[in-house]
Write a structure and sequence with these properties.
mainly alpha, Arp2/3 complex 21 kDa subunit ARPC3, globular
Length: 162
């Protein structure tokens, strides 16, 4: 019984590692503004798909991983990811039944809140923040959501993640 419960954990971990790799991928300076919030998108999917396994605690540790990866203030991404996980966990029953384009609107608003926390904490540190990143990251994340959803859903079904 316990073996069945842990079935597919490696798929969840691998998807977060891929999100970290895409976050760390070097981009030209002009393209940095258009980088989606890979970690937040993966966290949103897993919070909606398997809410009994992925929640705020996973969001916290995934955020700490992003803080270490990007060299930001420890806890900055952790707080933002906890917010994402909390909201995604609260509304997953309503969001799962929506068409993908409507889910994308919700993703836009949630990533906008995520970016708001990141920009707020960065600003409190006295560091410069590029104003367009507040809007471009949620926009690109919203446009990528249908593909991310379909790919992760197929992986979840193929490897029986439950």
């Amino acid at each position: 019984m316990i073996l069945h419960r842990r079935h597919g954990t490696w798929v969840i971990v691998a998807s977060f590692l891929l999100a970290y790799a895409l976050t760390a991928l070097p981009l030209p300076e002009w393209a940095e503004l258009w980088r989606p919030a890979w970690g937040a998108l993966v966290l949103m999917y897993w919070c909606m798909a398997v809410p009994q396994r992925v929640g705020v605690a996973i969001g916290f540790f995934a955020g700490l991983g992003l803080d270490v990866l990007q060299g930001t203030l420890l806890g900055q991404h952790a707080l933002a990811m906890c917010l994402v996980a909390f909201v995604a966990h609260k509304v997953y029953l309503q969001v799962r039944v929506l068409p993908l384009w409507q889910q994308g609107v919700g993703v836009f608003m949630l990533v906008l809140a995520y970016q708001g926390v990141i920009v707020w904490i960065t600003g409190m540190q006295g560091l410069m923040v590029h104003g367009n990143a507040m809007w471009t990251t949620p926009l690109v994340s919203m446009l990528l959501w249908p593909w991310i959803f379909v790919v992760l859903r197929d992986m979840r079904r193929r490897y029986s993640v439950s």
